[in-house]
């Protein structure tokens, strides 16, 4: 019998860690049970979401009260959202003279400069600190299929480390166009309340801002939209890891048999993913976000490739996708306009609002785009 030589370095590594692995369309990391991870000196779990693709994964990491992680460097990128706790992180290059230390709290978001040595410290003596991270470890480990290359590589990315101010909340705003303006930095002290910009073409009174953290090839953006409203549906391949920062609602995903056909079809295969602060999910194909609450709904999206560095496919903002994310499918883009959406969307949304004892504001709003009784 022939030997099957097909091999995934990432899957093999996951099995070797002994860490719990959680799967599903949507997962609530604050509730997960973790296990010790000697590599980082933290408790951890690995998340494999239904539509995660092959580029990125997620970790949930936790330090005990007064605890710290081990110093480590890693030849992959990592974006970290703080679910709970407060503390500080130090990062440095070949020697500690370059060390920069910044503080964080629940709601902070930061990027680890690639392959910089870093260490986390829990600033509370009473409560644990828990992180949710998105990394491009799967693509990096599968590409080089060498654990030694990933965790014992001496190369220093000096251009990734950033200005001193990037570790203290300073940054650079790059004005591009509505929906594509981005803020360059390493740390957002309060991602839950960071000031965003209008993006009218996505609907629902939405605001948005793109980010480039630690000069990463990973993409980040934060979007927010109004109470009792829903955004226009749009489509892309898997890879956008969505973290719910605030609000009540749900997302619909219709994955066309788990293949993105790019035409808005397949609505008979709808998956509903409920929202809860701190939850994470990955949409695939066409998907749409709904706010059934009385407060604005805000979410964070992270994934491989973006408007600044066009790597990967159409998951999170290659040049091709970035130009069509808010352009109608009728014009060759990836967005389903309100005038073209399935009429059942409005009825479903209003029913969900009633269940939540809230008021839909969409019926009157949609009259400017199509006939609505």
Q: How does this model look, in words?
A:
The chain starts with 8 loop residues before the first helix and ends in a 7-residue tail after the last helix. The chain has 2 domains: 9-165, Jelly Rolls, CATH 2.60.120.10; 168-366, Jelly Rolls (Sandwich), CATH 2.60.120.10. The chain is built from 7 helices and 25 strands. Helix content is 13%, strand content 34%. The model has no long low-confidence stretch (mean pLDDT 89). It is globular. It has helices spanning 9-17, 137-144, 147-151, 158-161, 319-322, 344-355, 362-366; strands at 21-24, 26-27, 35-37, 42-49, 57-63, 78-84, 86-92, 100-105, 109-112, 117-122, 129-135, 172-174, 182-185, 187-188, 197-198, 207-213, 218-225, 233-236, 241-246, 249-254, 271-274, 280-281, 285-291, 297-304, 335-336. Strands 2, 12, 13, 15, 16, 17, 19, 22 and 24 form a 9-stranded mixed β-sheet that branches.
